[in-house]
Amino acid sequence: MILYRPIGMSELILIYKSRMRIFPPRLPEQPFFYPVINFRYAEQISKEWNTKHNPYAGYVTRFEVNDDYAATFERHIVGESWHEELWVSADALEQFNEHIHSPIQVVSAYFGEKFRGHIPDKGGMKDRHAVEQFSLLDQHYQHSTQDFHGEITLNHLTIFLNCLFWAGHDFSQHNISPARREQILSAIRSVWAEAFPEIHLPSFMLNPDIIRPALPAT
Amino acid sequence: MNRGIAFIVVTILVTGTLFFGTYSDNPLSRQSPVIAFTVAPASRILTSTARAKKTVTPTATSDATTTLYRTVDEVELAYILTQGNYGFSTNGSGKYFALRLEGVVTFAKSSLNTNRQMTITSIIVPPKILERGYVFDDVGGARLSVHFPDAALADLYREMSPITIVPRPAVPNGK
Q: Are B145 and B136 in contact (CB under 8 A)?
């Protein structure tokens, strides 16, 4: 079964640190883990909740578990007919994680007007917000591929978290045309694919509800 | 002491030359005191500066010095020729250097540098300067590397040896 989970930046950071394999344990005041059944619902939560709260970023993750295992959890409709979710008790999350056919994918992201991005504490991007970061990467790409490459691998978490914002942002005020933006993003993806082949850089899925053939159990 | 090693050490101390080479095609090699050198597994570098009167391998770190490597494009190379350092980026984001020659050579040949005219340069620095930067593994790139923020570059340029060109054919990659 394909499931989705809308998350904020802090939860995505924890998932990333697990190499996109598991969802982090719930907090004591969170008795359930709620994956949702369809992309539409996950998208709505991301847009209407996460983008309105600091750091103003909502990500939709997509992952797969065996149908038989998913069927062991209660399904609840909590609003409209498509507001359907599974209720996984916090105690069961560790076992649930073991049934995820990794990697967990980021298939969409939404950003509020106040979004400033993940801001690293080292490298050339240190203390710069997301728009400045991309402008810097553009200049690195023009002038020094060693700086460009180093910046990406040193600040890979920032790249991972901000790349979908860059993909949708208008950088014309920074003299970066859409074509130029795509060129830089393509170069980032190339560097990423060679440096971190086991983790897919987030990319927008045109139709995340299309179910792929079931992955073999791992 | 092994007589062969003793001979090499004496040769260095007395004549100041060993595996000394020049790279006449590169304009940097015509600038004193910039000295180019040949790179071979067993080779050693000997610069003409008083500060660097000891032998180091291109990739090894001795007790007293560390060699850093940086690939530069034609624009940065031209700047080096006129100013003798790597300058400061317009965005104030510092500079990246590799700590291993093999890493930067591999990176210079990578697809990211296809159709770019890259030149590998090196500098010799006191190891203590690395404390001003952030050392990390540039995975898939130049590997063991260090980033110096702008605030550290002035000190780096004051402490470093003259910039040296690593004599590698500066032709577009992928050819």
A: yes
Give the count of domains, chain B.
1
Q: Does B121 touch chain A (CB under 8 A)?
A: no
Select from A125, A146, A154 the residue whose CB has the most chain B CBs within 10 Å, as the one to mutate to test that interface.
Answer: A146
Chain B residues in contact with A125 by the CB 8 A cut-off are 93
Separate counts of helices (H) and strands (E) for chain B: 4, 6
Query: Does the distance separating the beta carbons of B93 and A124 come in below 8 Å?
Result: yes
> Distance (Å) from the C-alpha of residue B92 to the closest C-alpha of chain A?
8
- Rounded Cα gap, residues B74 and A44, in angstroms: 50
Q: Which CATH class is domain A2-111?
A: alpha beta
Cα distances (Å, whole numbers) of residue B108 to A120, B55, B93, B138? 27, 26, 21, 13
Q: List pLDDT tens digits, range B51-83.
A: 333 333 444 455 689 999 999 999 999 999 999
- B114–A contact, CB cutoff 8 A: no
Helix (H, G, I), strand (E, B) or coil at A120: coil
CA separation, residue B165 to residues A123, A173, A200, B123, B127 (Å): 25, 38, 37, 9, 20
Residue ranges per structural domain of chain A:
2-111, 130-195
Question: Using one digit for the tens of pLDDT, what is the confidence trace for B79-115?
Answer: 999 999 999 988 899 999 999 999 999 999 999 999 9
Angstrom distance (rounded) from CA B87 to CA A215: 52
Residue B152 lies in a domain: yes
- Number of helices (H) and strands (E), helices first, in chain A? 8, 6
Q: Reading across the β-sheet that carries A57-64, which strands appear in turn? A: A2-7, A57-64, A105-111
Contacts B136 to A, Cβ<8 Å: 150, 153-154
pLDDT along chain A (218 residues), means of 10: 97 97 96 96 95 96 96 93 95 97 93 97 97 97 96 98 96 95 95 94 68 38
CB contact under 8 A, A151 and B107: no
Output phi, psi for B31, to 5 deg.
Answer: -100, 125
Whether pTM > 0.95 for this model: the answer is no
Tell me which residue range forms the domain holding B43: 19-165
Within 13 Å and on the Cβ side, how many CA atoms surround B29? 15
Residue B173 lies in a domain: no
